[in-house]
Amino acid sequence: MDSSRGQQGLCVPIASCAALCKLLGVSNRLELLLAIMHEPASVGGLAARLGLDCSLLSHHLAVLRKSGLVSSTQVGHRHEYALGPALIHHELRTDQVRVKVRGGDGVAVELTLPVPATMNGVLCEPKPLRAEDRPSTTRPRDA
To answer: What's 9-123's CATH class?
Structure first.
């Protein structure tokens, strides 16, 4: 059997590329990675910038951290997220992002990903809060 073949008979580079595409195929993860490429931030800072719930961001950050695309450093009582060691090179443009990523198997994969028009402003200005993320207008619970 050919040792360059991975599970399910795919060549290792193809399997690595498929895994990366699956990882970045979730729009929130791609948006999160783009925001971190622009500037490292905490979960709270990313939530304010992207208009997403902190628990959802924490989930996606954990997935990106496990893959090595994102790393975290504790700064006081919070974690600061930045680009991780698996991201060898990135080039951020207004209409596309080019990334070169080293997978767990050591194979480097290069991708050019389009940046959807709705995400072009994400690096410059925060999104408006969604209805479910706005502060409640009801009276706070008694302790």
So the answer is: mainly alpha
